[in-house]
From TrEMBL:
<dbReference type="Pfam" id="PF00106">
    <property type="entry name" value="adh_short"/>
</dbReference>
<protein>
    <submittedName>
        <fullName>SDR family oxidoreductase</fullName>
    </submittedName>
</protein>
<dbReference type="InterPro" id="IPR002347">
    <property type="entry name" value="SDR_fam"/>
</dbReference>
<dbReference type="InterPro" id="IPR052184">
    <property type="entry name" value="SDR_enzymes"/>
</dbReference>
<dbReference type="InterPro" id="IPR036291">
    <property type="entry name" value="NAD(P)-bd_dom_sf"/>
</dbReference>
């Protein structure tokens, strides 16, 4: 039976990963903030309360994962932050909140997530095409873009550190109809997650350290 961990599963893409992996018969562990574990547990997953922006809360993951031998661990938690168009400076509070969830949380949790994997398991982070510097043609949401570019850097270092032990990828889920993506987005959350699950299932050694879109296509860094 496949064993999967989803970090940030209260709603949106994270919750849909839990739903689809459970439907496929996988054993699923997930984390969510506050009161949201009930929705995750209703899908038959084990859920732990965890705020990725809180050091004490995040430190609980390591012992929980001891001996699980996961096939895959996915960091989904994310925040968009201020909806800017140009070079509006973020407030200190917005900067800290977005960077803590999108970057610091991943830096705190990825080592424990990697330790929880079986040899050759998959470690994935939910990045965004908006992180891409090579493909950039807009300045919208520059704090979010900066945070996801930093997350990509974190993933790349994880890939170097875990070479030969895990397959590490940054995933762009497409533009998805969730609270973050909004109602005008092009993909349903069901289709996005189904596509990402296909990408994860089809990963090979060549994909290690890659930045991949919902069809498995390489995205420029
Ligand atoms: N939707 C898109 O079009 C799109 C496109 C590119 C990339 N992404 C990325 O995909 C991931 C999931 O996005 P989504 O569309 O599902 O967004 P969403 O519906 O806004 O959900 C965001 C998730 O992140 C969790 N989260 C935020 N701060 C957290 C914290 N401090 N501790 C724990 N969990 C926290 C939220 O939990 P709470 O319910 O507790 O707030 C929620 O589960 C994000 O990383 C996002 O950047 C999304």
């Amino acid at each position: 039976m496949q064993k999967v961990l989803v970090i940030g599963a209260s709603r949106g893409i994270g919750l849909e990963f839990v739903r689809q992996y459970r439907e496929a018969g996988a054993q699923v562990w997930a984390t969510a903030r506050g009161e949201h574990c009930a929705a995750v547990q209703a899908l038959g997953a084990t859920c732990w309360e965890l705020d990725v922006a809180d050091a004490t809360s995040a430190s609980s993951l390591s012992w929980r994962l001891d001996g699980l031998n996961l096939d895959a661990a996915i960091y989904c938690a994310g925040l968009y932050g201020p909806d800017t168009a140009g070079l509006e400076p973020p407030t200190q509070a917005d900067f800290d909140t977005v960077m803590h969830v999108n970057v610091l949380g991943a830096m705190r949790l990825l080592p424990a997530m990697a330790e929880g994997l079986k040899p050759g398991g998959t470690l994935a982070v939910l990045s965004s095409v908006m992180a891409s510097i090579g493909g950039r043609s807009s300045t919208s949401g520059w704090l979010y873009r900066a945070s996801k570019a930093a997350l990509n850097s974190v993933l790349k270092d994880a890939a170097l550190a875990l070479q030969g032990r895990a397959l590490c990828v940054a995933l762009h889920p497409g533009w998805v109809r969730t609270d973050m993506g909004g109602p005008a987005a092009s993909l349903s959350v069901q289709d996005s997650v189904a596509a990402q699950r296909r990408v994860l299932a089809g990963l090979t050694a060549q994909d290690h350290g890659g930045f991949l879109g919902p069809q498995g296509e390489a995205i420029p860094w």
